[in-house]
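stage 2 :: seqdesign
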């Protein structure tokens, strides 16, 4: 998360021209976690994981999540 933490997402080169909705960000974070899991960087074998779920809350009434195997 360091590259996007407390950043104006419109200024992140990887997101140029993309509408950085909360839904988009959940998938972006998921992809990073999934890659780290596949490379064994999460402390356990990726085969032990059944799914990864990322939830981002904008407020107490607005949130989005992305979950996949």
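stage 2 :: out
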């Amino acid at each position: 998360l360091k590259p996007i933490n407390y950043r104006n997402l419109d200024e992140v080169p990887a997101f140029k021209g993309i509408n950085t909705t909360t839904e988009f960000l959940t998938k972006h974070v998921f992809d990073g976690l999934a890659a780290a899991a596949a490379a064994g960087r999460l402390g356990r074998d990726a085969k032990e994981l059944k799914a990864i779920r990322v939830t981002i809350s904008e407020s107490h009434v607005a949130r989005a999540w992305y979950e996949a195997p």
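stage 3 :: structure notes
- Residues 16 and 34 are 23 Å apart (CA to CA).
- The longest helix spans residues 22-38.
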